[in-house]
Amino acid sequence: MGETTVGWFPVFTLLLGYAVKAAADWLQHRRTSEREREARNAAREDHLFERRTAFQRQTLLDLQDAMMDLVRTTGEMHHHDVVSFRQTGKWQKQLFSEDLAEANRLANARTSMLAVRVRDETVRNLVTEVKNHSTKAAMCASLEEGDRALGAMGIEFDSLNRRIGEVLRDLDDEPSMVQSSNSTTRAPRKQ
Question: Looking at the whole model, is its pTM more than 0.90?
Answer without folding.
Answer: no
